[in-house]
Amino acid sequence: MTLPALPSGLSEIADRYDVLLCDVWGVVHNGRESFPDACEALVRFKAERGPVILLTNAPRPNAPIVEQLDSLGVPREAWSRVVTSGDATRELLNERAPGPAYKLGPERDWPLYEGLPLQEAGLDEAAFIACTGPFDDVKDEPEDYREAFLGAVARGLEFICANPDIVVMRGDTLIYCAGALAQLYESLGGKVLMAGKPYPAIYDLALAEAASRLPATLDRTRVLCVGDGLPTDIRGANAQNLDALFIARGIHAAEAVGAGGLKPDVVADLLRQEGLHARFAMTDLVW
Q: What angle separates helix 200-211 from helix 85-95, to the nearest 10 degrees?
């Protein structure tokens, strides 16, 4: 069991990297408040080292996410660009226009479809499903959709998942994301397509944004991915052959963090169970 290195702060390792690809929810904020130490770390890295690309599986284009970051007090100096799963998913949707599409998710995610030549239809008439999450992520569970999904799978409908996350922390509560519905759909025999983390499309966008902000050619060995999600952030970094910094106080906090802080053996075991590796691990993102 290989233990990740345990730096006390990002400053200990920052000189090894020119680019930071940083997760948002669980690392920078929890949906209700931002984390000042994490924001400071990003501000310092961007000022002293290079571009910070915030990489989120939010199923909307980046403009509403920027508004959310502003509302939570995340300083603009903490990031260079925001790249979302929604940005990458729009390309999949555009390829399937005019559809029609069955839109599964809350109305707050409708900006995903703005400007796309898509028609909307009920599930019985749709050519594919576009999912940003449950209709009500406070009350709904994946099993609530089983019956509807069985019919859609029988008709051979593709399921476009705009957010591969299974769950996310909202304050102190775990809520289901589109990835949980995609997982159920696939288990029933349906075809699922995703563009967010850990899939390549979102990394292609993020690395292109980073490269455009560097004075020289981007060196992938000098890119660090930061995140709290093993199946998304860390798996995505591994698939791209990029170094990863695992933040334990996120969706895995109940297992990986105790009264004395980070539990290195537990973190290593979690990584082993998933067949993943992280070069570094920290309790929280701090400078």
A: 120
179 shares a domain with 93: yes
Give the torsion sign (CA, 210, 215, 217, 222).
negative
Q: What CATH number corresponds to the domain at position 128?
A: 3.40.50.1000
Whether this prediction's pTM lies above 0.70 is answered by yes
Cα 93 to chain centroid distance, Å, stands at: 19
Amino acid at residue number 92: L
Give Cβ neighbours of residue 92 (< 8 Å, ≥ 6 apart): 160, 193, 195
pLDDT in tens, 182-216: 999 999 999 999 989 999 999 999 999 999 999 99
Angstrom CA distances, 243 to 39, 103, 221, 279, stand at 21, 36, 7, 6
Maximum CA extent, the chain = 56
| DSSP assigned state of 126 | -
Number of structural domains the chain divides into: 2
Distance of CA 235 to the CA centre of its chain: 11
